[in-house]
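Hi there. Long-time user, first ticket. I'm pasting a complex I've been working with (about 1170 residues overall). I'd like to know whether the download I got is complete or cut off, because the file seemed smaller than I expected. Thanks.
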Amino acid sequence: MQDRTYPEFSTRYPLLVTTLMKRPVSLYPEQIGVVYRNHVSGEYTRLTWAGWHERVCRLANALRGPLAVSPGQPPRLGDRVGTLAFNTHRHLELYYAVPGIGATLHAVNIRLSPEHITYTIRHAQDRVLFVDDIVLPLLEGIWDKVSDVVRTVVYMSDKPGLPDTRIPNLIHYEDLLAAQPPEHEWAYLDEDTNATLCYTTGTTGLPKGATFTHRQLYLMTLHILAAQNMSNTPAHISREHLGENAVPMLNTPLFHAHGWGAPFFCVFSAQKIVLPGSFTVKGFCELVQTERVTSVSVVPTIAAMLLEYPQLHEYDLSSLTRVGVGGGALPLGLKTKLEKLLPSFQVSSGYGMTESAPAAVNAFVKKHMVDWGKERLDGVLVKTGVPMPGLEVQVVDEAGKPVARDGASIGEIVMRGPWITEKYYDNPEKTAEVWYDGWFHTGDIATVDADGFIVIADRIKDVIRSGAEMVPTVLLENLIAMADFVLEATVVGAPDPVWGERPLALVRLRPGHDAGATDVVDFLFEHGVQTGRITKWMVPRLITLTDDIPRTSVGKFNKKAVRDRIDEYVAQAVDVSEHVGKTQG
Amino acid sequence: MQDRTYPEFSTRYPLLVTTLMKRPVSLYPEQIGVVYRNHVSGEYTRLTWAGWHERVCRLANALRGPLAVSPGQPPRLGDRVGTLAFNTHRHLELYYAVPGIGATLHAVNIRLSPEHITYTIRHAQDRVLFVDDIVLPLLEGIWDKVSDVVRTVVYMSDKPGLPDTRIPNLIHYEDLLAAQPPEHEWAYLDEDTNATLCYTTGTTGLPKGATFTHRQLYLMTLHILAAQNMSNTPAHISREHLGENAVPMLNTPLFHAHGWGAPFFCVFSAQKIVLPGSFTVKGFCELVQTERVTSVSVVPTIAAMLLEYPQLHEYDLSSLTRVGVGGGALPLGLKTKLEKLLPSFQVSSGYGMTESAPAAVNAFVKKHMVDWGKERLDGVLVKTGVPMPGLEVQVVDEAGKPVARDGASIGEIVMRGPWITEKYYDNPEKTAEVWYDGWFHTGDIATVDADGFIVIADRIKDVIRSGAEMVPTVLLENLIAMADFVLEATVVGAPDPVWGERPLALVRLRPGHDAGATDVVDFLFEHGVQTGRITKWMVPRLITLTDDIPRTSVGKFNKKAVRDRIDEYVAQAVDVSEHVGKTQG
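Hi, the file is complete. Here it is re-exported in full:
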């Protein structure tokens, strides 16, 4: 055996999700690692890393044993295991146990329509479903349409006992675990074994299931941590949200693009992880206070809900040193209020998608910006950022050439790299629509400025084509949202006999403000046209002030639904053409 | 083409060394990225990232073109390219261009004996050698013994023109680059392509060539950056040595275990990299002042040289926020002096070896230590540390079982993971001696304490077997070195008719101190026996006070050479048996 080498333990040591989990268990077995607050009952579950890991081991044994879940062998996927669950310790256990045995985790997006939920379960062919007690009614509602696919349903609840239900052979999660041995030898799987299946929201068609392997998720995690380390930290920005002593609260649902990666990089970092079930304002405040949470990520809507909570002042939120806001432009008024409440509040943007797992473009402080003041730096931190290290991201014109770095030339974002999905599961047609010429095509439109910052301008399908020109709607929306009398805004194309389409702005005012359509125009001239961000012809001539704007399951504006009701919105609109015409740009 | 996917740009996107280099070039093309000071002439070379990268491209074109260097195809290595060079911008160019075209970089350890240098060049079969002007005489001295292997020699110098030499067909590096186009399309190589060949120092035999692939070096880099991000930062420890605004000076020779990884992680981090040629005290001080260096790593000997430099006070060293000391225990007196000179000085230890590329075990601040004071924390930061994230490191007994975490049970360090060498090049016998039972066996002896910190006790071959017991010599050496009258110390076994071997301590006193052998004994009792770190029988009975202790090429004590002269050292020794006998433990 003199020429025996071990490539499987050296050059080909597999990159596996289970490796991430082994670190906190080894470093801090007796420390509290996972805290869950049931958002209905208000009850807490606190687990040490060793205690949590023991549950993951029991779950893995249950999956391989009584649940008969089969592992995959690349390129073949293992059995799919679906979850219909909020952010609980159990969901985090499933995040490791299911991929850990070589099977595929399908975290079902329970915010989709029942039709689409049914579609994803059937398309994924989920053999086992794990369902939260409060989500059971949803599953009961579609049971007849998935019962031929699903072999077993496991019921997850803090309370013992099974409910009355028409779903047969329900198993209680805690009973399942209790019957299993507390140890599991984690296999050295092939790193190309599929680990997760994440369905897109399907606003314009059926959801598509992006596939991710162990290697991909492991590499995304490492690159996120490396990126955090390499970015420059201005003196006024705390780093307490990084490192082991950070206490993150995971508000992003685990069924949205891997909860933005937190279930992986927070575990590997051995941070105490706080899980709030589903977001509630009271739960949020209580958890920050009891667990001394240091860092949260929220969408603007949640930030607004928080500020309007009458009991807010009763809580000690002083541990929060990082409140990242993502998923939409942050209105100026909201930003000012947040800064008053939380002095260390830091606005920070990012861009990603289900298919990029999702880390793709992140807010970044370049070397020469490190001494900038807070206001000026905030201007940088809201404009999306630079590509993640290790990922190739380009903005290309229709010939596939990178656009000029002039902050004005518009192109499509394309990318490739270690953690971009290779394909949609069982969907070669849709895969071929995004993967061609060696790049993944995002369908998002952006510009690149001289610093290399990628600024999202629009979705290709949302672009308004007015005459020969394209109106970048996201740019307009973000501009309008900066007005302190505006809560949020969206811009779509309205049919126009002369131009083909003209932009129509739907604007939701902040409560207590009675601005009118011409105020919106004046604001766009002052902060858009005069600063060179937009040209005069881009200013919407039709403005509808309304609180009734349809949303998607993830809380974004649903532009398709708006376009379906376009006549109704045009009828409500104020025509500001005359006012625009006489305003000087 | 509806089922076209791109695994090569997604699931199988190759992990390549060239990716590391692309980041600073893309982010900061016009900023100074690489600064080199010629330690002989004192002249500076300053290159922007774009300028440096252009040179790497020209070099790659030269390697593929006139130098006819062939790429490898796993498992076959590409042609080996040797370097005999100090830390210069050219050496850093070779670090990227040679692996970048799929060939193997062999950074020859020019501190080895001429015989061993000859051996490594012949064993690696270096087709091309790149040699610094000041190293040329060394190559001329062994030329007759390597000329049948080496096809071409490239001469690297800041000055134009070729020297008079008996080496035929010498090519000047700058002429070679000037003749090439400034662009190179970096190939998407197989990530398993071999990138480097690093020979061990061979203190007890012939050097062995540890092999590393692109994937291995890329993954080590990512894990180092992730580890930096995840470690806890006490308030008194600055993080300014991390992130892009850090300015590291690379003192560790690039021919030692990848210069401890700095040529990879500092480049990926887009830090301004300062290269001092070979270390000189004047060069060190001047570069810190002119480049505002923030971070250096030094061995204790260099720290001592620095403190004794008469002109030290003439330099502004205030930018230095991180002086890591590695490669040996730091004497207490030296530590106190360094702290006076550099208030932000931070002692920090690590453990690694050529075969681990070298990151393996690193100093670490655990969660509960983050509020500790500096003195107490220093006690933690000098005791090696915890395994690198993503690496499996264990201390095992002779049956291969992990030893108890009691800080006393001794075992061998074994490891496995993504960047541990798979094999010694063309040396299956030596490979089989270290790789068996699924683990790489380091030959180093250690204990593990309750916090999981691995504390190096000894090399297996240096262990003193006294009766049925093993005396951990490194532990004794580190203890003795803590005495403020001691500069450094080493402990070896001296033949003993009763016990087989008894420990002999060779102690080098600090200049101006006239302590005697019994003072060493008293110190060991007070700080070793009474604190429970050692037992009374481990205290050496023979102590030799001497300045004449042989060293290896990397500056460590050469215990083999000491043992070869053991009779001489025993003759000089003071027998302290009686003093030990009457001292109470």
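A couple of notes from our side: The CA atoms of residues 395 and 413 of chain B lie 4 Å apart. Chain B has a mean pLDDT of 90.
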